[in-house]
Design goal:
63% helix; mainly alpha; 7 helices
Length: 245
């Protein structure tokens, strides 16, 4: 549908360009010599074609950004899908009920359901990181809506050093860095406040890998890292702030 709209806009721009070219040519025809008229027509066509191409390029870039925004919103909606949210809630309750509240959860100390929820979180952020790494997401919106949650779970889930854990940390680190460098952006207002309150820190130390160069590893579930990139918007949230962090 979005592609059809883009083609419609492009067609409209072509029609406008044709009209803009035709009218001056009709007006100038009786006023100019044949040679002057030919030169005028060639120059006018060159200018109009250039303007039309620039307009088409602007339209394409705007449409491309809209698609990146849609993917972020779709992933955010997936994150708050009721069953996924319920499985995470069990881990949140375990964090709060520990002898030392909000001590990171060690995978070997989780029961079967809790471990399954952990794997589901890691798989989700593998897909998010993969989409981010290839530029399929709007950076600021991805960091705000998804990176805040990644940063929270990066502190909540102990790092066991396995490849399946790596994508979460890389995306969280990238999001923290982006939020820090754009602290004046309203999207990052109060960034990390709940993490500091609950965990006493806002991030893990950054690892050596770049979030734009990470090769995402399979966690064993056979999911494609690009699944779930539909274009349905969402406004749901686990908290009013739409953040774990």
């Amino acid at each position: 549908m979005r592609r059809a709209l883009w083609l419609k806009r492009l067609g409209l721009q072509a029609i406008i360009a044709a009209v803009v070219i035709t009218i001056p040519l009709i007006v100038a025809a009786p006023l100019l010599t044949p040679d002057a008229y030919s030169a005028f027509a060639a120059a006018l066509q060159t200018v109009i074609v250039g303007v039309t191409l620039l307009a088409a390029l602007r339209t394409y870039h705007a449409d491309s950004r809209d698609r990146r925004v849609d993917r972020v919103l779709a992933l955010h909606e997936e994150f708050f899908e009721p069953s996924f949210q319920a499985s995470r809630r069990a881990l949140v309750l375990k964090l709060r009920a520990g002898q030392v509240p909000f001590s990171e959860l060690i995978s070997s100390q989780l029961n079967e359901d809790e471990y399954g929820a952990r794997i589901q979180i890691l798989r989700f952020f593998e897909r998010v990181q993969a989409a981010s790494a290839i530029g399929s997401l709007d950076d600021s919106l991805a960091a705000s809506l998804l990176g805040s949650h990644a940063a929270w779970w990066d502190l909540a889930l102990a790092d066991d050093g396995k490849a399946s854990r790596r994508a979460l940390h890389v995306f969280a680190t990238w999001s923290n860095d982006l939020a820090q460098s754009h602290s004046e952006d309203p999207l990052f207002e109060n960034w990390g406040a709940s993490r500091m309150r609950e965990f006493g820190r806002t991030r893990r130390p950054a690892g050596p890998a770049s979030p734009r160069a990470l090769v995402v590893q399979d966690t064993g579930g056979g999911e494609s890292p690009h699944e779930g990139l539909s274009s349905q918007p969402t406004t749901t949230g686990e908290h009013q702030s739409l953040r774990d962090a």
